[in-house]
Amino acid sequence: MASGELAVQTASPRVAILLCTYNGAGFLGEQLDSIEDQTHSNWEVWASDDGSTDDTLAQLADRRAQWPEGRLHVVAGPQRGFAANFLSLACRSEIEADYFAFCDQDDVWEADKLKRAVDWIKSVPTDVPALYCARTRLVDVEGREIGLSPLFSREPGFGNALVQSLGGGNTMLLNNAARDLLCLAGPGVQAVAHDWWAYILVSGCRGRVHYDPYPVIRYRQHGGNLIGRNSGLRANLARASMLIKGRFRGWNERNLDALECVRMPLPFTNEAKMLVEDFRNLRKCSGLSAVRGLRGSGIYRQTRVGNLGLVFAALLGRL
Question: Is the alpha carbon torsion for 135, 219, 83, 302 positive or negative?
Answer without folding.
Answer: positive
